[in-house]
Structure formats: structure tokens, C-alpha cells
Amino acid sequence: TGAHISLTAQQADVQILAHRPATTMLTYGGSWPGPTIRRPVGQRTTVTVVNTLPDAFGSLSLHLHGDHHSSADDGQPDDHLVAPNGKQTYTYPLTDGGKAERAAFSFYHDHRMDMTGRNNWFGLQGMFISDDPAEKRLGLPEGAYDLPLLVADRSFDDAAQLTDPFPKASDPHPAPAPVNGPYAPPGDATTGTR
Q1: Nearest to residue 83, comparing CAs of 62, 110, 55?
Q2: More confident residue, 68 or 90
Q3: What does pTM read for this prediction?
């Protein structure tokens, strides 16, 4: 059997820091992280992404990190994009070589060319867990004791808004990427303070 899931990419105010104002973020479904998708291995899953972000953010994609699926469903950086006010359906069979793939704790995120870091920093990410029925025999924690955990590093200003470490397209003379220091790859100044 299969399942269909819908994710709406939208800008939303999310309570991130305790006792501080809400933070305006890019989200899937109005929450950060986006909704956790949990599916049995080998069970076809389709996910439709609806892009209601402000037009200035442009197109996006949905990449399920570490899964086996067709190229068209891989959230390519510059193909099969979800245009502003558009939608795109991605199919994940959760199989590998015709057999149910192994259980995994994965995550999904936007993978737009040249915008992946920015869009993830501002919130377009969530967890995708595929379960194997054989796990029941292992006696692993379940129910209230099975807690998915996503660790992220962000920097906030005094108004509890995310800082913006990314160069602006309007900058006529962007500095070349330094070899070392906080603005060097792979961090590219996206290492947070909280």
C-alpha cells in the first residue's frame, strides 16, 4: 500500500527560542523542522510540495537525503523545480534493487541550485524515517520513547530573527570565498551561535 503526503512551503513565524519572539522562517507546513514523515520500508510514498513562499524566494525542490529513487524524484538543483505558486509530486518507492530498503533516519530539504544553504538555514528541512517491521523483534524504544532528533546550528539577532550570512545578489563586488576562517567552506558562515 502507498501513502500520499502534502507539504506546503511557506513563510511562517515559528517559536524557536524560549521566552523570545517568534522567528520568521521558511517552512514546510508552518513548522520547523517540517513535519516528520514516517513510513514502512518498501511502501511507495508520494510527497507533493506546494510552493507558497513569497515570489522573491523563487523555485525550490525537495531532496530526500540518502534514499534510492529516480532522478526526476531526487529534488534536482536545477530540474523538476517547484515554481512559485506551483506544485510538484515526488515518488519514493522506499526500495533498493526491487527489495525493501533498509530502515533509515533520513531528512528532506530544499536542494535548489545556489540556494540550498540559504534555504536550509532559513528552515526548509524536515525528518523522514523509514521503519522496518523487523525492528519490533529488537526491543527498541517505541511510542513516547522513540524520539527523532534533529540537531541544527543557527545564529539569531536581538529580535530573535535569523541572521543572514549569505552574500546578496545585489552586491556588485562579492568577495571571493576565503580559504579559511568563518566564511570558508564547508561552513560558509553558517555556523550558528545558539
Answers
A1: 55
A2: 90
A3: 0.83
